[in-house]
């Protein structure tokens, strides 16, 4: 009887040794993400699929996923936080040739490009005496798009010369075709004044233009808050600028006006940055533009004044420039004034009022709502 017992123990030890050596052999792990681009707080699904494709069972299996901290689980899950990442842990037992799929509802709490990183697999042998750990590379990404700012609520005219005319109308109404003459209100560019009619009427008159879809707009987005850029980075104001940029994009898309995006930042996940994008509109162009806004990082590819100078020498032609910046630094004044000379309209949206008075008088300027003038 004792020999039988020894024999069974020996068999168990041999099988346990085999199970230890092959516990993760013919085992596959995969992760499915239901969406690649999402809005902030928009729910999407992450499905974890584990497959044991062998005759031996896995008596203990733990899967540890390294995920971005901005990812939040909608319901209770085994999550621990560590620095910039969270670790999602799952434990299970797998029978021979079993496939287990677990689906979790999640959302992103902030804008950005988020990387789903490596996975650690920890499996135990049949007797639970030893464990085997293995790291597997499993990189995926999700881009959370910026919130869309309501321009009427986010910004207001700098000074009091614009009256009560809406922000949206000032940005979009880009004149091309002269259809008549009307009285000067004090907000129109000086070059639109019609001097013969002004002399006849005894008061300033300006040309009245028709709103057409022949306009082409370049949105120039800046993420520099100071010089050098890293010395006084204001993330809050940068994020407001990105949200305002999306609000402007939305308006041009709705109006069917071709628009392009230029930015001095690096786009996370793109090996080579195209800092000045071509103009266009439509579903594909819109999707690409707002995804680029989601990918904007906090490091610059070039100083903003260099980007403005590049726009002046660009072979592309634009009737309107919309410049969005966290701050109006002295280095930007001359390039913006020169840019105004080669466009029909230039709009500046700044998060503070510093140096706005140094801009050309016919540049339309806006400031973050709530700042004192």
Automatic annotation (TrEMBL):
Name of the protein described by the UniProt record: DUF58 domain-containing protein
Gene source species: Lutispora saccharofermentans
Lineage, top ranks: Bacteria, Bacillati, Bacillota, Clostridia, Lutisporales
């Amino acid at each position: 009887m004792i020999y039988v017992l020894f024999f069974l123990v020996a068999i168990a030890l041999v099988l346990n040794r085999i199970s230890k050596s092959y516990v993760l052999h013919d085992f596959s792990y995969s992760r499915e993400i239901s969406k690649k681009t999402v809005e902030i707080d928009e729910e999407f699904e992450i499905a974890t699929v584990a497959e044991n494709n062998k005759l031996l069972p896995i008596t203990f299996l733990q899967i540890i996923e390294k995920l971005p901290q901005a990812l939040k689980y909608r319901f209770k899950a085994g999550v621990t936080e560590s620095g910039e990442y969270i670790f999602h842990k799952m434990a299970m037992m797998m029978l021979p040739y079993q496939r287990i799929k677990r689906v979790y509802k999640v959302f992103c709490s902030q804008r950005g490009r988020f990387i789903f990183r490596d996975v650690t697999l920890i499996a135990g042998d049949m007797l639970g005496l030893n464990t085997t750990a293995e790291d597997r590379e499993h990189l995926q990404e999700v881009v959370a798009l910026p919130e869309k700012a309501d321009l009427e609520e986010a910004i207001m005219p700098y000074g009091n010369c614009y009256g009560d005319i809406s922000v949206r109308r000032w940005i979009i109404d880009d004149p091309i075709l002269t259809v008549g003459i009307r009285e000067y209100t004090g907000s129109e560019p000086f070059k639109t004044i019609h001097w013969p009619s002004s002399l006849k009427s005894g008061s300033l008159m300006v040309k009245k233009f028709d709103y057409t879809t022949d306009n082409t707009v370049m949105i120039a987005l800046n993420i520099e808050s100071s010089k050098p850029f890293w010395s006084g980075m204001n993330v809050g104001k940068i994020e407001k600028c990105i949200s305002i940029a999306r609000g402007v994009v939305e308006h041009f898309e709705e109006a069917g006006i071709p628009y392009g995006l230029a930015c001095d930042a690096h786009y996370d996940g793109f090996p080579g940055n195209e800092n000045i994008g071509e103009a266009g509109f439509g579903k594909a162009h819109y999707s690409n533009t707002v995804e680029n806004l989601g990918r904007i990082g906090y490091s610059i590819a070039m100083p903003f004044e260099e980007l403005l100078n590049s726009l002046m020498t660009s072979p592309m032609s634009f009737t309107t420039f919309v410049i969005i910046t966290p701050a109006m630094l002295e280095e930007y004044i001359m390039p913006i004034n020169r840019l105004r000379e080669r466009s029909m309209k230039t709009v500046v949206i700044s998060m503070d009022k510093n140096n706005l008075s140094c801009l050309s008088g016919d540049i339309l300027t806006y400031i973050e709502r709530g700042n004192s003038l």
